[in-house]
C-alpha cells in the first residue's frame, strides 16, 4: 500500500471513530454533568431555616420555611361567604381597592379584568379584589364594578368584611401598603401593586400597575407559576 493510500485509510478510520464514539461520549457527559433548568419565580418575605434537612434530587439540603399568608373569610359581591386562599390547588392574583375611589381602585379593577379575561379558561387561577373599606357591602361593590364580574371570570371575586383586621393583614401577610387616610373616614391609602400567590400561599411576585409593562410581566409569570405547579403537584392540579 502506498504512503498516500495509507494516509487516506487512516483519515477514514479517524472520521469513523469520531462518528461512532463522540456522540455517545457527549450523551454520557450531559447525563452525568448536566441538569434540567426551569424558570422559577422568587419567593418573597422572610425566610428561616427549620433546622431540618430534606432530600431534593437525591441531595440533602437545609429545609427553609417561607413566609405564608393565612386564609381569610370574606363576603363577596354576591353576598356569599368565600375564603381567600382556601384552596390548595390554585394560584391566586390579588390586589386591594375600595369602592369610594375612582382613581387607583378603578385602574386596579380595570387591569384585573384583563387578567380575568386572559385566564378565564384556566381553572386553577383565582382572582381576588379585596376591599379595605368596612362599609363596602355587596351593593356598594356591585355598583362600583358596574357589571357582574363572575360573567367575566367565574373565579374572580370582589370581597370585603374579612374576619381579621384587614389593614394588619395587608401589611403583615400580604406585604402591601394599606391604612386609613389621616383625618378622613372614607379615604384609604392602598398599594398600587398586584400580587401573585402560589398554591402553598407563598408570595411569588409583585406588579406595579403604574408601569404598563408590569401587566404583561404578570401574565407571563402566571404562566411560569402554572408550569411549576403542574411539575410539582401534577395529580393535584389535574384533579382540579
Overall outline: globular
Q: Would you list the SSEs in sequence order as H and E?
A: HEEEEEHEHHEHEEEEHH
| Number of helices, where a helix is a run of at least 4 consecutive DSSP H or I residues | 7
Q: Using only CA atoms, what is the Rg?
A: 26 Å
What share of the residues lie within helices?
Answer: 25-40%
Main beta sheet strand tally, sense and closure:
7 strands, mixed
Written overview of the protein:
With 240 residues, the protein is an alpha+beta fold. The strands form three sheets. Strands 4-3-7-6-5-10-11 form a seven-stranded mixed sheet. A two-stranded antiparallel sheet has the order 1-2. The chain has seven helices and eleven strands. The N and C termini lie far apart (74 Å). It has helices spanning 3-33, 104-118, 138-145, 149-152, 166-172, 213-232, 234-239, and strands spanning 47-56, 59-66, 72-76, 81-84, 91-97, 125-131, 156-160, 178-180, 188-190, 193-197, 203-208. It is globular. The model is unreliable at 27-36 (pLDDT under 50).
Gist of the model:
With 240 residues, the chain is an alpha+beta fold. It has helices at 3-33, 104-118, 138-145, 149-152, 166-172, 213-232, 234-239, and strands at residues 47-56, 59-66, 72-76, 81-84, 91-97, 125-131, 156-160, 178-180, 188-190, 193-197, 203-208.
Protein traits:
240 residues; two-stranded antiparallel ribbon; 7 helices; globular
Write the layout of secondary structure elements.
Layout: H1 3-33, E1 47-56, E2 59-66, E3 72-76, E4 81-84, E5 91-97, H2 104-118, E6 125-131, H3 138-145, H4 149-152, E7 156-160, H5 166-172, E8 178-180, E9 188-190, E10 193-197, E11 203-208, H6 213-232, H7 234-239
